[in-house]
Amino acid sequence: MAVPAQLKAVQHHIRTAQEHEKRDPVVAYYCRLYGMQTGMKLDSKTPECRKFLMKLMDQLEMMKKDLSDNDSITQELVGHAHIENYALKMFLYADNEDRSGRFHKNMIKSFYTASLLLDVLSVFGELSEENIQHRKYARWKATYIHNCLKNGEAPQ
Amino acid sequence: IGSISTSVASAEQDELSQRLARLRDQI
After folding, report:
1. Which residue of A has its CA nearest to B23?
2. Which residues of A56-73 are buried (b: 16+ CB within 10 A; e: fewer)?
3. Which residues on chain B are in Cβ contact (under 8 Å) with A54?
4. What string of pLDDT tens digits covers the 156 residues of chain A?
5. Residues of B with CB below 8 A from A57's CB?
6. ipTM attached to this prediction
């Protein structure tokens, strides 16, 4: 299901959902929920966006049914803890690689995924100041190291 | 035709909002 151009801001969250479908369905579910909520605010009027959001909603309802015995889906407080722990685990892995001077694609992706999952946390309410700082740092690091590797420079 | 398509769009938007609220156990 291609993400319409108007909903470009959530395309990476939707892709993260697809990547976690089997690995961690709870992560996949909340990434889609974020895509749904944010997508509705961005554009739910044009036919291509309505079609996309309707399909996304079908997917969410099906997932909720399939995962009805999972506390992280039925209780949002547990879901919040699950996503936050997962995001911080990604962040810590990338940060540890960074501090050890090991710069590679996987650590860039971990920084970036951590920042996307910190976006996803906003479905549960306002982000904490700490999470806002982590998100900013992770996104900046991902961009900075990506550009260094692309230009053949050593990250400082 | 314009007003019909506008009301279809707003009905679908309402449907999405209602389904979202149900999904999140808000109704």
Report:
1. A61
2. bbebbeebbeebeebebb
3. 12, 16
4. 799 999 999 999 999 999 999 999 999 999 999 999 999 999 999 999 999 999 999 999 999 999 999 999 999 999 999 999 999 999 999 999 999 999 999 999 999 999 999 999 999 999 999 999 999 999 999 999 999 999 999 998
5. 16, 19-20, 23
6. 0.85
